[in-house]
Specification:
Elements lengths: L14 E6 L6 H6 L2 E6 L4 H12 L7 E4 L4 E2 L10 E2 L3 H11 L6 E4 L5 H13 L3 E5 L3 H10 L3 E3 L8 H10 L2 E3 L7 H8 L7 H15 L8 H20 L3 E2 L14 H12 L4 H6 L3 H6 L2
Parallel strand pairs: 1-2, 2-3, 4-5, 6-7, 7-8, 8-9, 9-10
């Protein structure tokens, strides 16, 4: 056995990144910052399969990857470049078969997917033992997605988590992954210099995002305005968690303002600063996402 002197240090459980996209150069940085599991959303199928195989075989020193593959959208205009598009029932069946080729753990449904297709996709995912996630940028879409059986909601509402959605979440047992970093936490932390003591690979990622983040939607905001935005969103999430809603940290890395590894610890800190206990904040990055994905 090997004894480690932990005097003055903290022992953390392995962290769970609920919403990110695979990047080969960041695997070591994620692991160095304590991220041992990540849910990959929106990556091309070939990359998702490659990461899943490498992770399953322990060929890459990085977190275990639960791949969703491309987001399933209803039209090309709404999707990312890598999205799968289903405009007919036949296209929906073909897309779902492609996502099931390699037993991906989850499927991610886009906001433009017609509701009848969404319901069919959620039912088929449940039948195949997959977890259905749904991008929910609006209150109406979030509530209908929950009623249709979505188990994970991914969204970035600038007003935080609405009380009606929080009540539906608490009743359904589903979880919300809000992407706090893309709501301003990442940009605020970058301005404050947080993350400067991160491992070198993570610092490189953080620095690379600085320019991209500065050109983002928060570029014209003052520090006070940004801080008020972050505090309001975090307060709504803390209230929802205390009311019984399941909220899982998913940073959206590498979107503007979010850096692999650094952002997940920043989001845990933001929830603790917002009024959760350290244990409650850590649950949002450990047990809550783990239970949501089975």
């Amino acid at each position: 056995s090997h004894r480690v002197d932990g005097s003055g240090l903290y022992a953390l459980p392995g962290l769970f990144e609920m919403n990110a996209r695979s990047e080969d150069a960041t695997a070591r940085a994620l692991l160095a910052l304590g991220v041992t599991t990540m849910r990959d959303i929106g990556s091309p199928l070939a990359r998702s399969f490659s990461w899943k195989d490498a992770s399953d075989a322990f060929r890459v020193p990085g977190p275990r990857v639960l791949a969703s593959g491309p987001v399933l959208e209803g039209d090309f205009a709404s999707g990312q470049r890598t999205s799968l598009v289903a405009r007919t029932a036949e296209e929906l069946g073909l897309a779902l078969d492609r996502l099931n080729e390699r037993s991906l753990a989850t499927v991610e449904l886009g906001a433009s997917l017609p509701r009848v297709f969404r319901q069919e996709a959620i039912a088929l995912a449940a039948e195949r033992g997959q977890v259905a996630g749904m991008q929910a940028p609006s209150l109406e879409l979030a509530v209908t997605a929950l009623s249709d059986g979505a188990r994970v909601l991914d969204g970035s509402p600038l007003t935080g988590l609405h009380g009606d959605v929080a009540a539906c979440l608490a009743a359904s047992g589903a979880c919300w992954s809000p992407g706090l970093s893309t709501l301003g936490v990442g940009e605020r932390d970058r301005r404050l210099g947080r993350g400067d003591d991160a491992p070198i690979l993570a610092k490189a990622t953080w620095s690379a995002l600085t320019t991209r983040s500065a050109r983002g939607r928060f570029a014209s905001w003052s520090n006070d305005e940004l801080d008020a935005q972050v505090r309001a969103v975090v307060a709504s999430l803390v209230a929802a968690i205390k009311a019984g809603a399941q909220v899982a940290i998913g940073t959206g890395s590498p979107d503007a303002g979010a850096a692999f590894g650094v952002s997940i610890t920043g989001e845990v800190a933001a929830l603790a600063e917002g009024g959760l206990s350290t244990a409650e904040a850590l649950r949002a990055a450990t047990t809550v996402p783990a239970r949501a994905l089975g």
